[in-house]
């Protein structure tokens, strides 16, 4: 068995593609992608909050105070339009970001103690609704001034005025620390990169060791050797397991170096989270990758053995990436938390546990259950792969 294992490892070590998928992508590409994405997204969010918004306003003579507020406020620049009929075309051509239309009865309604309205025209088909939030902030300020002005006529004291404006004020006191808050956000992305990296690293070697040997005609020679088929399957499984686990551990190591080296330059919440992650957390994170790599290795080897050719194996294994994403995406759904039920679900339990580890709220009893359930799942899949390998109609499909 170990002779076959070393032979497969030696052949893969000589292959440049193996080096790219096992070492180069996990160590360099994934951390750079994550770091670059975080940097770019943070800059884009900050830029969207402070970017200059061009707008048009119609009916300014009916609300001079509101018009003056938008004129004086930094971050807004008025663009004149001839008529309200040009609003839609101007927004579509990005001439303006939004338009406000004030009705003629605006001032009369306010003076008559009635609620007035202002129409906001903008394109809401965007992922970040920054325009509405920034316009609403200005209107909230106008509403606060109008309320205070109306209530001041009642000769109320400051305490009475505060009560009239906000009878009940909500004071937020979060029990979550900085690490838990940031971990809830970043911890959901970590399993995606680690699990996908583990799967991608073992995909190409798996195709080569099953369907590749069929095409080269070396599988028959291997079966004629005085080696039990269980040993052959176990040797190939250990190769894929070693490659997947090594790739994941290299990714964990490179990401750790990246976080601890440049974590201080990150926002305060991220820096606090990085500084509170200890060696034990990283060790537990790496330990959970072992049964996950075993699950992927068993499934990949089974599909490769079943395939008649390299092309068919690639077609069978490619959808596996999409199927593997579903359990990871489930861990991001609201209401899905790590409990005794989810601790039994393969891949989802690992994704939830990784998020809890990053947050610093891991229940170590759950951790043991996750390791046991994932190991049992991997063992069952390996037994299925061994049974699959013993069937002649599978090995020599025409």
Automatic annotation (TrEMBL):
GO molecular function ontology, one term from the record: ABC-type transporter activity
Transmembrane annotation, as ranges: 20-40, 183-207, 227-250, 257-277, 283-306, 313-332, 366-389
GO cellular component, one term: membrane
Pfam families on file: ABC2_membrane_3 (PF12698)
Keywords: Coiled coil, Membrane, Transmembrane, Transmembrane helix
Location in or out of the cell: Membrane
Superkingdom of origin: Bacteria
The ABC-2 type transporter transmembrane domain, residue ranges: 17-375
Xref: Gene3D superfamilies: abc type-2 transporter like domain (3.40.1710.10)
Coiled-coil positions: 132-159
Topology class, membrane: Multi-pass membrane protein
Matching PANTHER family: ABC TRANSPORTER PERMEASE, ABC TRANSPORTER PERMEASE PROTEIN NATB
Protein name: ABC transporter permease
Lineage: Bacteria, Pseudomonadati, Pseudomonadota, Betaproteobacteria, Burkholderiales
